[in-house]
Amino acid sequence: MNNVNENYENETIYVCGGESVYKEFFPYCKYIDMTKVYVGCDADRFFPLITHDEWIVSHHIAMRNSEEYWWQFHFIEFKRK
After folding, report:
1. What percent of the chain is helix, strand and coil (3-state, nearest 5)?
2. How far apart are CA 33 and CA 20, in angstroms?
3. Which of 4, 10, 23, 48 has the fewest CB atoms nearer than 10 Å to its CB?
4. 20-48, pLDDT tens digit by residue?
């Protein structure tokens, strides 16, 4: 993983994946762009825990609900302290 920091220091890298991919890259993240969707479903895999002592909310777009989509969601950007 050190190659990511050394070879791509000035690049923006987006990580999309499942739980194991997020956990692998999580220590190297400076920002998290998250879409939080409020819909009930069963899950057995989860995004790593974001704690307020390590992260701050740097941008937030309020929940939206439209006739087109029956679920509610909002966008949150976290920045590592």
Report:
1. 20, 35, 45
2. 18
3. 10
4. 999 998 988 899 999 888 877 888 988 89
